[in-house]
C-alpha cells in the first residue's frame, strides 16, 4: 500500500513537472510621482501603420483582458482614458556555436569483460543552435494639454524571452503577463518571472 502511494505521488509530481513554462525577463522604468490609481481608465493604442493590423488588434484584445484582471478600467476611446498604452512587439534571432562530444562504440577487453561493447567519446564536433528572442515594449503615456500636444511617457516596460521557434502568436501572452504585472513599477533591475502554461492569466487569454 505504501509503495503504491509513493508511486502515485511520483507520477503526479512528474506530470506537474512536464507543464511547459517560460522565463520572461522584464525591465521597468518609471517617472511617476504617484502609483497608478486603482481602477484608472486605460486605452491600448495600436499602430495604424502596422504591417499586420489584425495581429495588433489581437494583442490589444489580450492586453485589455489582462488589464481588466488587474482592476483597470478599459476606456472605449482615447479621449476618455487616464492613460494610454502603446506597444511594439518583435523577434530577433541569435546563433550559439560550440562543440559537443561524439560517442562511438568500441570493442575489446576492458575491466575483465572481453568482447563487451563499451562507449567513449572520441572527438568533438561543432554545432550551431539558433534561438529567437521574442520581445515586447509597453509604454504608459499620460495625456497632457501642453501646447505642443506631446503626451508624457511615464513608464516603459521591456520584456524578452527566448524560444526555439519564432512564434509570436504563442509567446506574446507571456510577454504581456510580464509587462502588465509590473505596470507603472520601476523594477530597478532586470526581473525574471517563470510563467507556466497553466497560469490562470495565460488560460484567460487562451480561452478568450
Could you say which structural class the secondary elements and strand pairing correspond to?
Answer: alpha/beta
* Proportion in helices: 25-40%
- Bin the strand percentage: 35-45%
Q: Gyration radius, to the nearest Å?
A: 25 Å
Question: What summary fits the major beta sheet?
Answer: 7 strands, mixed
Widest sheet, order of strands? 3-2-4-5-6-1-7
Specify the number of helices.
4
Shape: elongated
What's the average pLDDT? 80
Low-confidence stretches: 1-16, 107-112
Tell me the number of strands. Answer: 7
Q: Distance between termini?
A: 44 Å
Order of helices and strands: HEEHEEEEHEH
How would you characterize the overall build of this protein?
This protein is α/β, with parallel strands linked by helices and 208 residues long. A 7-stranded mixed β-sheet has the order 3-2-4-5-6-1-7. Helix 2 packs parallel to helix 3. The radius of gyration is 25 Å and the shape is elongated. The protein starts with a helix and ends with a helix.
Short description:
The protein has 208 residues and is α/β, with parallel strands linked by helices. It is built from 4 helices and 7 strands; from the N terminus they run H-E-E-H-E-E-E-E-H-E-H.
Any descriptors?
4 helices; disordered N terminus; alpha/beta; single chain; seven-stranded mixed beta sheet; 208 residues
Give the topology:
Blueprint: H1 2-17, E1 21-30, E2 41-44, H2 53-69, E3 73-74, E4 83-106, E5 118-142, E6 152-163, H3 168-181, E7 191-196, H4 200-206
Parallel strand pairs: 2-3, 2-4
Antiparallel strand pairs: 1-6, 1-7, 4-5, 5-6
Helix pairs in contact: 2-3
